[in-house]
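quick one, two chains, predict together pls
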Amino acid sequence: MPDQRTVAPRLDIGGIANPRSVAVFGASDNKEKFGGRVMHYLTRHGFAGKVLPINPNRAEVLGIKAFKAIADAPKPVDVAILAVPAAALLQSVQECAAAGVGCCVIMTTGFAEAGTDEGREAQRTLVETARNAGMRIVGPNCMGLISPLANMALTSSLVLEIDRIQTGHVGLVSQSGALMVSIFNRAHDAGIGFSLCVSLGNQSDLEICDFIDYLVEDKNTKAVCVYVEGFKDGARFLRSAAACRAAGKPLVIVKTGRTPAGERAAQSHTASLAGSYAALQAACRRHGAILTDDPDAMVRLADLLVRWPTMSGDGIGVLSPSGGGAGIGVDRVVESGMRLAQLSQATKDRLLEVLIPPQADNPIDLGGRRSGDVAGTAGKVMTPMAEDPDVAAVLVVLTTVPFYEQTTKELAMAALAAGKPVLFSVTPGSAADGPRRGLRAVNCPYFDSLDQALRVLRLMVEYRALNQADRTVPPRPADLPSAPAPAQSGRLTEPEAKRLLAAYGIPVTREAVATDADAAAAAANRIGFPVVLKTVARDLVHKSDVGAVKLNLGDEAAVRAAFAAASDAVRKAMPGAAIDGCVVQEMVRGGEAELIAGIRRDPLYGPVIMVGAGGILVELLTDIELALAPVSPEQALAMLQRLRLWKVMAGIRGGAALDTRAAADAISRLSFLAVDLGDRLVDLEVNPLMIRKAGDGVVAADARGQLA
Amino acid sequence: MPDQRTVAPRLDIGGIANPRSVAVFGASDNKEKFGGRVMHYLTRHGFAGKVLPINPNRAEVLGIKAFKAIADAPKPVDVAILAVPAAALLQSVQECAAAGVGCCVIMTTGFAEAGTDEGREAQRTLVETARNAGMRIVGPNCMGLISPLANMALTSSLVLEIDRIQTGHVGLVSQSGALMVSIFNRAHDAGIGFSLCVSLGNQSDLEICDFIDYLVEDKNTKAVCVYVEGFKDGARFLRSAAACRAAGKPLVIVKTGRTPAGERAAQSHTASLAGSYAALQAACRRHGAILTDDPDAMVRLADLLVRWPTMSGDGIGVLSPSGGGAGIGVDRVVESGMRLAQLSQATKDRLLEVLIPPQADNPIDLGGRRSGDVAGTAGKVMTPMAEDPDVAAVLVVLTTVPFYEQTTKELAMAALAAGKPVLFSVTPGSAADGPRRGLRAVNCPYFDSLDQALRVLRLMVEYRALNQADRTVPPRPADLPSAPAPAQSGRLTEPEAKRLLAAYGIPVTREAVATDADAAAAAANRIGFPVVLKTVARDLVHKSDVGAVKLNLGDEAAVRAAFAAASDAVRKAMPGAAIDGCVVQEMVRGGEAELIAGIRRDPLYGPVIMVGAGGILVELLTDIELALAPVSPEQALAMLQRLRLWKVMAGIRGGAALDTRAAADAISRLSFLAVDLGDRLVDLEVNPLMIRKAGDGVVAADARGQLA
């Protein structure tokens, strides 16, 4: 929906996040009511601005002068929060618009998310009313916002039943209100504060990217977390992600609707179109944003990236007070795809001063100390490990040792002094509350779940790799056609698709279309035997299945027979189908592996390029890499290197290396075709792209496509 | 180490788990000391038996009469617990042996786990001393045991700083002491009690299986959990697992040392040999035991299997008070490999009475209710979902809704009333302590981590599948040779390996060994062109790499030339190697896919059979299934069906189905060969086992092996 704003907004996002005044509709002393809780939390946490209770039946609420209607409240009213019933909402919003309110935060539900025409229409009316007045809307169907630096808890959620709102450097933008407050609460327990938390609900007016862009500019924010079910505008998201990147602020995202079933849940919730998750992954890789599947891990990661913006490598040191903890830690680190650090001899020598030989290596079991005094040993063990050049981060699996609160603090302080990321996983429950207090006292991160510690650690390693990858948008090669637009639209025949490929310098099979058996035989003679013959029919998708493909034809007679047989087979399988003759192709020789390479236009994120293991492996493996188009040959090569099939391409068990350079070049060219086709691209796929031995190139053996 | 016991044990395991009396070495009032804490926990939790403090310097400890030495204590002394320094330990143990003590529980460290000859020798002396007296040992290097029904906390761990030891039906046997107490504590927090917790440490005398066998007989135990770094005796473990199975008691295992690095950590801790994890997985599958990677999940699973021993299916219902929670829940359920339940129309109709249309399906977002009163709606939503025939278990992703303690209870009670497993994942932190209390009050399982809820749910689904699988040991087919023992030992040549296969009725290539070019040509004529020729040399492992394999030889001349060229190549690559001529083989035709099939003898679990995707896919995929040998053809077929390659074998995209029956038959026969070779088997591998179209059989194209 294009922005139909006719009047300039009265307030920018900063004014909404830090309002001078807040009007509370349905304000009440009663905490059983939405408006009651909002009033309580605003006052309890010491909101610095003006609180304006709106209630026709009350002179004051919680000792604060109340107003019968918004029109009576003293101006300016920057923000109004409304949880009134859906039926009464429009009138309240109209009154706000008339009273010059800057932004309505609407918690009421029953709009677009209900999935009814009525709900969508009501939402449209709300937005129109607001826009015509220059008023903004957060919601509906949201849980408000929390602005810790302004001591403002503009929400009815019970998670505000805390003594103090902690401030911090992580900004949280959540589509779901329930998750915003759940995340806020977990973070609060972990001692993590925010610069801003906001929930957007239906994103009817203000949307996720409005707040990302605000946080990019906000000097208190050093990392941005986003929980999203669907972006309203993919291109805008790409710009926002790039802005985070440029500002050096890590962007961490959880997206629901990754699976088809999750997509339904997300859609019915917010009535927003979920883009394909794979395309989002590609978009995030391009812009250095990081995706995870757990909302709490998102915030924990952001917090760690604020503390330790860079990692010195990817080696993990593991330390535990017990052999069991060390064993579990190491198995899980390795199974999570991370690398155990290799300690230097110098480190081992230092460790040997306090540990017995089997433990003076990674992982370290503190139980293997020479002296009986664990509290005096812990720091002497942690310091050498954390200082080892190959240790980029330390994972401590804290099981139980007697009196370990002191030991824990000692371990934490030694690790923090080394300046590298350290994550404690505390395995007992309430019995370890003492050590947890100790860790909080020295401000050392800990996790009650090893899963979460591992997930966050792996994401830190991933983030480092992402930052080291080449994420530039490549320049356009000079030899590409400048006006490629093909005349066709709809489904392309194989020869049509290959002409497009060939125009972009992608090698295709030598081939010719023949409309009768004589022409086919002549074509075969020109191409050289043996040849392949395929019937050309626009509506024929699975050529092999109906007998329309004849391989390995060795002479003219075989070609003539095949022409007739293939044409007959298609006519029989698809009576009345338009047959455009047959294509006669060279039989590809020397193909050592098969790739699949495709482009499509994602409705949210634009042109994407995919490459993967082709042929039968498409069905066996999901060995696929996606990237936003275009990619340079070097970036294409990096995609190939991430495939499992890379082993084969690089030359397995003494086998020859394949022409990965040529493959990367073809993929790069294909990605520029995706860009040039623009909105006309639906999809175009080469399968197989045969890859020969190094120096012998690649060739597109089959192709299909569809244009709008 | 064989059991060198010369004297019958004074006490059985039941007597150790429920002793009449416990002597505490180093008993003290001082909780800073091991013996002080043990005394405190024994008395605090009301141990019903006699407590006998041993301390040369004290007349009484905590008001209980103390003894200068164990010899002075009144008999019988069933159990003594010792945490005395390593140097003094042997003398204390000797005194115990002399005083008629039934079992020493030794917490002292510095024995075999130190990895020194000295430590191993000291441990050997300990064990000998005990065995000669009929005394048992738990430990050394353990954390004792907890016997809740006897109110006995025989450990120094601070996790006993609780008001009451809960009793329950889960038995826990842990090699690691630290993990035992950590697991105990988490379970305590979750309201889960045990029938017994014991830590074995170095398993110097009593070992894990002694306690599994005890728990199998113990009427208070309904499920058994085992944390293990290494079993002492694999065959014994198989018997113990089978006994659990026969008793209908689920056996849940966490094994560390799964990765090579983890293996080092585990070995240096307990000085025990870690068996191959894949073989353990096969052993567990055979005996219906379940493996996981998280100790807490192990106990949570056991608790749920005690509550709900069976599941009606594998369909999962997901319900959340918010769309965000429903979306996250569904994505994670699907990504964890589980299946979302398909609600019946009748269920949807019932849901439509309280929910708006988009929510009246799985997953359910309670926010989509028709009335505003969530507490009145929750049960009316949960009941139809939990009663739906395709819902086998319900996952509730509890985000936040106002006043949700009541809602939570209502949801829990409705779900529990349906009699199906229900798992709550509570997403907020301390803000949800109220709902947590509500869940505990109605005894409904909940998880603070969605990861853990998903892991346990997935394990329940796995356990159900495991119980449905055919786990019988198949009878021996009548046509197998009765005395197969081959004359060779050491490395087998390809023809030798194939003769073994052929003797077991596994189809191999038609072939003949020739010692000169004339004989090779004659053999090729008998076999039929084209043929394959390979040099036979016992020490030649990678034949292709040195040019010892010549494919597709079309006539006599080609065979003669190949004979010379291949022999020359081997002589050049391995000067002085013994060459036993060449083998001339049929060139296999019609092979549509390649399998790898192998047998080996695992040092702990005996003969195992492996099957997987062969040829180049061995390197690309780890598409492998392992089972204990022997397997029936039906069991072999089930192994094939678990491979990704099954898609290809079953006939992909209209392709022909392959001869999976013949493949399964060959695998079954190979598994019996593994059994018959007994201790002589090192390994034997067919790669590739070519599989042709259905009806056309399989053929072993290459094979290698090694016998002891």
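Chain B has four domains: 13-304, 310-468, 510-586, 593-707.
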